[in-house]
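Continued from yesterday's entry.
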Amino acid sequence: MRVMGIDYGDARTGIAMSDLRCSIVGTTTVIHSRNPEKTAAAISELVKEHGVTEIVMGLPKNMDGTEGARAELCREFAKRVEAVTGLSVAMWDERRTTVEAHNILSEHNYHGKKRKNTVDAVAASLILEGYLAFRKRG
């Protein structure tokens, strides 16, 4: 059993996968694509390759808890992922995950292009960590 976390973006989509016990983040990657169909297909391949049984995707809410246009885009993309993987996608409040990811990378001296290529995977890891902790609490 493995859970995948997704931080969907226009040009880069961060992916994080749990270990087999679903207790920690084990693997991360970034899918570089501006095409939602290609991104969903790449996610489907990762699901098959890694034996993913559950997917959680970040839902970008406004700070007051409302949902805007970006949240609707993510919900539409989640439906696309469900269609190509056959798995349901849980939506997870991702407020401040990108800010936190940037802070983590700053603390570890990741700057410029190095940061740009890593921040989405770190954000996906934070989404997945939050979801896994929620599942443990029960």
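--- second protein ---
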Amino acid sequence: MKSIKILLVLFSLGVMFTACENYSDTPVEYSPIFPLSGEWRVRITDESTGDLLKTTAGAVAIYVFGTYNTSDNKANEMWIRTTSSMVGGLGALRGKISCDVPGLSFGGTNVSDISVTTGATFSITDGKVSLNAITMPSGVTADKISFRLTTSKVAGKTFLFEGFRRTLWNEDESYSSF
């Protein structure tokens, strides 16, 4: 009886060791516009005054901003949009712009702003993503985004957007001193 138990244990161990298969990691499929795509936390500067836009409570206004690929997965176009309405008369923003993935740049002129039905347009210049450019309070390194925006909603003004790829670490969520 004792020898049967030993044989069963040895057989079970043999099955366990020979049944294991080593699978390689599944390769990550990125969108054709990665690393330009992402969720960003941005602050906005009014270039005519040099002032950062602030909330009604007087704090620096930080917005979540998204850049993402188009449904046809083109490598030279992307969507850009805010997730909420911005202060300073900017409201919400959403439109399809051109991008250059190898050059880490993007922009567009007289882009239809489909976040409103009034026929508003916007232009983006100097759009740039810098990889691993900001050390966050959490200690991780994040990518930086910056661009200039003019919009028909606030005629005659240019706004500078600067921010970082969202890390979702608690200590990074309110960071505005980059």
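The chain has a mean pLDDT of 89. Residues 2-19 form the longest helix (18 residues). Will compare against the first tomorrow.
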